[in-house]
Amino acid sequence: MATVNIKVNGKQHSLEIDPSTPLLWVLRDHLNLVGAKYGCGIAMCGSCTVHVGDIAIRSCVMPVSQLGTQEVTTIEGLSEKGDHPVQKAWIEHDVPQCGYCQAGQIMNAAALLKSNPNPSDEDIESAMHGNICRCGTYTRIKAAIKTASK
Amino acid sequence: MTRVKTKYNRRDFIKSSAIAGGGLMLSFSWLASCKPEKIDILEMPDEWFELNGFLKVGNNGVVSIMSPNPEIGQNVKTSMPMIVAEELDVDWANVLVEQAPLNTDIFSRQLAGGSQSIRQGWDSLRMVGATARQMLKQAAADLWEVPLAEITTSNGVVMHEASGKKAGYGEMANAASQLDVPEEVELKEVKDFKIIGHSQKNVDGPDIVMGKPLFGLDVYREGMLVAMLIHPPAFGMRIKDLNANSAKSMPGIKDVYVMNAYPEDYIKQWSDITAFNEMVVIVGETTWQVMQAKKAVRVTWEEQGEFVDYFESGSSPDGKYPVTYPGALESTAAHKKDLASLGEKLAEEVRKDGDPEVAFRNADQIIERSYSAPFLAHNCMEPMNFFADVQDDYAELVGPIQTPEYMEKSASARLGLPLEKIDIKMTRMGGGFGRRLYGHFLVEAAAISQKMKSPVKLVYSREDDMTFGTYRPAYYATYRAALDENKQLIGFQVRAGGIPSGPLFANRFPAGAIDNYLAESWSVDSNVTTGAFRAPRSNFIAGAEQSFLDELAEAMGKDPFDLRLELLDRAKTDPVGKPEENDYDPERYAGVLQLAREKSGWDKPENSDKSRGVSAYYCHNSYVANVLDLVLEDGQARVDRVCCAVDCGIVVNPDAAVNMVEGGTVDGIGHAMYSGLSFREGKPDQKNFDTYRLIRHAEAPKSIDVHFVESEIKPTGLGEPPFPPIMGALANALYRLNGKRVYHQPFVSDGQILG
Ligand code: FES
Ligand code: FES
Questions:
Q1: What is the per-residue burial (b if ≥16 Cβ within 10 Å, else e) of B512-544?
Q2: Which top CATH class is B474-753?
Q3: Residue A143: CB within 6 Å of ligand 1?
Q4: CATH number corresponding to B216-310+384-459
Q5: Where are the domains positioned within chain B?
């Protein structure tokens, strides 16, 4: 056990936890932020994607102690009212089926657009490679990212 | 308008209303998934009035509709209430949707499976809306003292044209809620539909994109413990010894013990199928603590030997029948050998028309090809889980389950509580695909909560989930065709088998289209547990059959569309066997083929050089045809375009239906290309997504266009039908691309397309 200080969605938290706990479980079990999902636990599915700074990371494999002072943004903090361009595009294209993978897809897409505001199809495919959707919404995801990039 | 008798008597509705109006609605409102969706946009009424168990009208005209069925991503939570709203004749923008809990008093068939939610719900959902509309009209007629027949409705308003009187539903709701349920109601004509057939957005869309807690894994309660399981590492093994001393003393750990999910003498229902009954349970405060402790638990395993499970049976005298599982530790190498060699010996005739033996004896040419596919794990993105809060006289069970009605009985037997003391609430599911028909995890969670005397959330790790199958069986099929010297088809044979069950549909196309036809089935016992997987059996046999037909068309010198359409014409005009035996409608089948042919530009000269594959299939009461185009990109086959033609009757929510077809197409391509589960000594080789390949973004088609046959036929299945045929279209296109036929799934292994 150790004291871990983290800043998530603009809010500072001080927690008494095992510092090796992955960020995903800190968010879900300790901060009641369940938007980031557990899908594989080994950085292979992307369901748990959040931003550390502006970078999309797999929170299931990042020990919370590794964060240092970097700020975390989760899907809950992406926008206040769900009106981030990526979220709006997701609604416009009615992307989700079961919806489970979508928070991770959205967070990854938002980070992509931040670093590359006008991605080509190939850019999207390679940036989104780590995010699995068992329901097969890939074509809609790509269309939504294109809409959000406009 | 069509006048129909309502199926409900007044007493049913009173009972329903009483229940829905009581504490029930409030007691589950804590669940975020039940929170009204449009709360920001819509003004909440001061008062709600129940018109029946499904719907309430607020004094301001806002309508709340219950969605009765489990939502696994198939869009029923949006499309089922749309059907109610249509007949109620309200503006969809004024509708709130709530997920109904399990309640067999009000709702029937609260099950997600077989693509049947909309099909089987259609009539009753329409009736629910129409009876409520009629009651609102009656209230207006009474108040205005005019004949009921002169009252009309439009978009949530009742009107009397002659007197110019008008009122919103909200104003009539109180009076309407006091009225008897009418014995006869008017249903709309299909052409008058304003909501059905017009795309409405997913009612959970805003919550999904904002990461709101909607799923079973998202359930958190004050004081809740987390539980995980350790099950045997191999099918055919069981626990010999447990050493949990060090795990028990780890931080946050409450207990580590051995549990039987089901009691020894329990007689199972079909939905109780489970791979492992005896398991180690680890209970602790947080997920990570439990995951750590799990690694510290030492279990030794032993071979279980042959074992027997008993299942309910109405026909046997003691009400049960035994299923015996062999004891050996099984491996894929041996499975493959069995599949390739045992068919001829084990096959049993299921259907025979004419004299296939003579046809094959007289054949000028015989074409014989065999196809296979491996076991598949469901891999719902949300792993299995359930929340349980079991107290002395009450159990609350919350989570993702496709069969709540069945599992309520199982939980009742396990807990020793009567059915009415068990309350099951359904969360939105992170995928189902058949896996959550088998609700052992609900029973396990309940048993753990009962023993721990605490609310508990049971969580499967991905590895637990993938190695705890009710897998899709491994399949094998051999097709044979006899051609005469004029290359005419004179005989056809299919011999299909699997481990532990086969994929044959003896009465589906091309049965009925060929004079001399033989269909045989066989299977090999196994202790690897299997169950329904998106479009059971069809998910293999469609691809095999449609690949074979492609090869047949080539041998006969025919266009692949022409061959299929000629066979269907035969099945229509002069069917072989009794027409009612043939389990498809040749006309609708031909309809989707013609539509796909037209929309894909199949006959256009500019498309003649493309690597295109054709396929079509009928299952779950719906018809789908595909044309799939492949291109070479950096030496890799890439799906450029898929054209899908679909006949599923009336399309309730068109854009969501397109989404479902796109998803089924991607899912089908993915499984045929990449996925498979193999075993060594009973152990699954793949345990997570590093070794189990699912399709990813860059492997999905660049475009998918979906075309529906215009229809006024009642809606039929859509969650499953787009999945099976695409595998055939893919195989056929691969042949056009590189000149090599593929027969064994997955088509890609180690990055190479296999022949
Ligand atoms: S849960 Fe983190 S990548 Fe899958
Ligand atoms: S929407 Fe279901 S996994 Fe992506």
A1: bbbbbbbbbbbbbebbbbbbbbbbbbbbbbbbb
A2: alpha beta
A3: no
A4: 3.30.365.10
A5: 2-209, 216-310+384-459, 474-753
What is the rounded distance in angstroms from the CA atom of residue B469 to the CA atom of residue B692?
A: 14
CB B269 within 8 A of CB B442: no
Chain segment B307-327, per-residue pLDDT in tens: 999 999 888 888 899 999 999
Q: Which residue, among B275, B299, B280, has the nearest Cα to B290 in the 3D structure?
A: B280
What is the share, in percent, of chain B residues with pLDDT greater than 90? Answer: 84
β-strands B517-523, B611-619 pairing: unpaired
**CA–CA gap between residue B282 and residue B229 (Å, rounded):** 6
What is the pLDDT at residue B726?
Answer: 98
Q: Taking CB atoms and an 8 Å limit, are B215 and A37 in contact across chains?
A: yes
State mean pLDDT over B180-185.
87
Q: Which residues contact B30 (CB under 8 A, 6 or more apart)?
A: none
- The interface predicted TM-score of the complex, written ipTM, equals 0.98
Q: Does A100 touch chain B (CB under 8 A)?
A: yes
* pLDDT value, residue B5: 54
Give how far A28 is from chain B: nearest CA, Å: 8
Structure tokens at B265: 């003498």
Q: Is the pLDDT confidence value at B662 over 90?
A: yes
Identify the residue among B285, B381, B655 best suited for mutation to test binding to A, counting A beta carbons within 10 A and taking the highest: B381
Residues B387 and B457 sit within 8 Å (Cβ to Cβ): yes
- Ligand 2 center–CA A103 separation, angstroms: 10
Confidence of residue B201 (pLDDT cuts 50, 70, 90): very high
The whole-angstrom separation of Cα A107 and Cα B723 is 29
> With contacts defined as CB-CB under 8 Å, which chain B residues touch A38?
217, 287, 383, 459
Structure tokens at B80: 């089922």
- CATH T-level fold of B2-209: Aldehyde Oxidoreductase; domain 4 (3.30.365)
**DSSP string spanning B328-385?**
SPP-HHHHHHHHHHSHHHH-EEEEEES-HHHHHHT-SEEEEEEEEE-BB----SS-SE
What contacts A75, CB < 8 A, 6 or more positions away?
A: A35, A36, A50, A103, A106, A107, B209, B210, B211
In the reported structure, the alpha carbon of residue B687 is separated from the centroid of ligand 2 by a whole-number distance in angstroms of 20
Rounded to a whole number of angstroms, the distance from the CA of B218 to the nearest CA of chain A is 6
**Distance, CA of A93 to CA of B477 (rounded, Å):** 40
Contacts of B340 (CB under 8 A, 6+ apart): B370, B372, B476
Query: Do B474-753 and B216-310+384-459 fall under one CATH topology?
Result: yes
Tokens 């931040």 correspond to: A114
CA of B466 to the centre of ligand 1 (A): 15
| B6 pLDDT higher than 70 | no
The pLDDT tens digits of the residues spanning B282-292 come to 999 999 999 99
Chain B hits for A25, Cβ within 8 Å: 286-288
- Extract the tokens encoding B680: 């060594």
From atom 4 of ligand 2, which residue's Cα is the shortest distance away? A133
Report the pLDDT value the prediction gives residue B7, as an integer from 0 to 100.
43
Using a CB–CB cutoff of 8 Å, tell me whether B370 touches chain A.
Answer: no
**Domains, in order of start, for chain A:** 2-77 (3.10.20.30), 85-148 (1.10.150.120)
Q: A11-25: per-residue pLDDT in tens?
A: 999 999 999 999 999
pLDDT tens, B599-619? 999 999 999 999 999 999 999
**Cis omega (within 30 of 0) on the bond before B500?**
yes
Asked if pLDDT for residue B189 goes beyond 90, the answer is yes
> What's the 3-state SS for B58-91?
ECCCCEEEEECCCCCCCCHHHHHHHHHHHHHCCC
Q: Would you put residue B215 in left (φ > 0), alpha (ψ -120 to 50) or beta?
A: beta
Q: CB B382 to CB A34 under 8 A? A: no
Task: Give the pTM.
Answer: 0.94
